[in-house]
């Protein structure tokens, strides 16, 4: 059993090394923006170890929990974290028509650009103060609209790009790679959960329920006969440093086996994940070393993200340290890659065939397709069950050979089965309709299969 696993591991690493060095097959590398080296190799080795049946360190999918810090790990945190930029912009907007706000010393600090005052204290107390002043009394829906308005209009002072474009392409790829191996990924951030939940699903594919962050108290009320939740100035949990393992326990309920951070604020989460864990575990620290493409800091930071003790402990604890300048061939996600990733994610799930080759389908015979994040496909032809593999690259998709059972059925259903399976061999692309339908197309762009989503 152990020899079989080692063979799988060696073959996997040879394959990855081969595709990483070949421009014609680079799309096969799940981490193309990671340069070859110890960090990339460590990621591959860990994932193979925990996801290969027969491995002595195999972990069942239900226990493959990965947690990611947000600021500085998944997206830029300099010169200030995204939420600090949002709050400062919001206070400037409101101070024009609400001059009484400027009486508060923390508001004045924000207006004067004294960011250090806002981020002082164990839990960035000045920032929390401004959040309370500006958002107490808003419903959660009103707050969501406020964040979206900012995200659609604000841009980074140095890079002159929307903040939501300043996410790290290598970490986007890492999230996709983990999900393709049945990891459930969570963001565990010191930022306010309400703020982060507004936009992370469309940027990272992480749903709101998988965001653990600092939690503010809300209260229930009826407004104009409709139920609403109203934000208050009180905090239930500040999700930073020792608060992160607490938040993981309270909101996830499982100990992670993989943890990704970038600062001393993530050290407790890294320790909780990797020290004494009965399951094989992995810790990774993103070290900001590239002043030209991004920022370079560790002990002395632009605003947050100090990295000293966690970095010192990395070798002792066996944590992988990523040097951005050395290990990442690209830093920023581009808009097209984000759109393509979002489009691909919409493929995943269960689909019901509504039309095959423009000849319709039988009402009583259901032909289905299920696509997983790892490209696995399965379903029913209407008579038989099948499974196989798809290759997805942007809006291109192709299906490998399908393995099916061999039961016989009525002639009309067997005819539909034949048309259904034959259509897969012609598929080269896909598009999502505005009506939520999935269209699989041939090389000329013709629709040859149309599906509707099956509700989970």
UniProtKB/TrEMBL annotation:
Gene3D superfamilies cross-referenced by the UniProt entry: 2.40.128.270, HAD superfamily/HAD-like (3.40.50.1000)
Top-level lineage group: Bacteria
Residue ranges annotated for the DUF306 domain, each copy included: 349-451
Keyword Transmembrane listed: no
Signal peptide location: 1-27
UniProt keyword Signal, yes or no: yes
InterPro entries according to UniProt: DUF306_Meta_HslJ, HAD-like_sf, HAD_sf, HslJ-like_sf
Pfam families: META
Key words, A-Z: Signal
Name of the protein this chain belongs to: META domain-containing protein
Species name: Aporhodopirellula aestuarii
């Amino acid at each position: 059993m152990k020899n079989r696993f080692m063979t799988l591991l060696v073959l996997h690493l040879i394959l990855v090394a081969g595709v990483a060095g070949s421009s014609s097959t680079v799309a096969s590398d799940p981490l193309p923006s990671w340069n070859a080296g110890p960090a990339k190799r460590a990621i591959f080795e860990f994932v193979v170890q925990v996801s290969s049946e027969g491995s002595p360190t195999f972990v069942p999918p239900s226990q493959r929990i990965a947690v990611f810090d947000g600021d500085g790990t998944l997206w830029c945190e300099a010169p200030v974290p995204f939420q600090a930029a949002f709050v400062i912009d919001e206070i400037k907007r409101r101070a024009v028509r609400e001059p009484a706000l400027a009486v508060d010393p923390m508001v004045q600090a924000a207006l004067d650009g004294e960011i250090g005052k806002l981020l002082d204290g164990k839990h960035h107390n000045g920032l929390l103060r401004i959040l309370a002043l500006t958002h107490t009394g808003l419903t959660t829906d009103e707050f969501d609209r406020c964040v979206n308005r900012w995200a659609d209009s604000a841009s980074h002072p140095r890079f002159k790009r929307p903040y939501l474009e300043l996410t790290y392409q290598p970490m986007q790829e890492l999230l996709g790679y983990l999900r393709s191996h049945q990891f459930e990924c969570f963001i565990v951030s010191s930022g306010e959960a309400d703020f982060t939940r507004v936009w992370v699903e469309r940027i990272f594919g992480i749903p709101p329920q998988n965001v653990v962050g600092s939690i503010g108290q809300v209260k229930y009320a009826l407004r104009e006969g409709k139920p609403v939740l109203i934000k208050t100035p009180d905090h239930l949990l500040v999700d930073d440093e020792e608060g992160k393992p607490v938040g993981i326990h309270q909101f996830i309920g499982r100990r992670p086996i993989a943890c990704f951070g970038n600062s001393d604020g993530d050290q407790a989460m890294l320790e909780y994940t990797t020290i004494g864990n009965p399951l094989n575990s992995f810790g990774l620290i993103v070290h900001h070393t590239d002043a030209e493409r991004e920022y370079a800091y560790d002990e002395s930071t632009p605003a947050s993200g100090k990295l000293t003790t966690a970095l010192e402990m990395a070798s002792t604890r066996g944590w992988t340290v990523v040097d951005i300048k050395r290990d990442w061939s690209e830093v920023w996600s581009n808009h097209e890659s984000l759109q393509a990733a979002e489009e691909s994610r919409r493929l995943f799930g269960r689909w019901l065939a509504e039309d095959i080759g423009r000849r319709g389908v039988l009402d009583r015979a259901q032909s289905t397709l299920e696509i997983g994040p790892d490209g696995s496909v399965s379903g029913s032809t209407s008579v038989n069950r099948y499974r196989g593999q798809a290759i997805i690259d942007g809006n291109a998709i192709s299906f490998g050979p399908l393995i099916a059972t061999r039961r016989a059925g009525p002639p009309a259903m067997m005819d539909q089965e034949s048309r259904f399976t034959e259509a897969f061999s012609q598929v080269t692309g896909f598009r999502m309709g505005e009506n939520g339908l999935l269209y699989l197309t041939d090389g000329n762009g013709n629709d040859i299969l149309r599906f509707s989503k099956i509700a989970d």
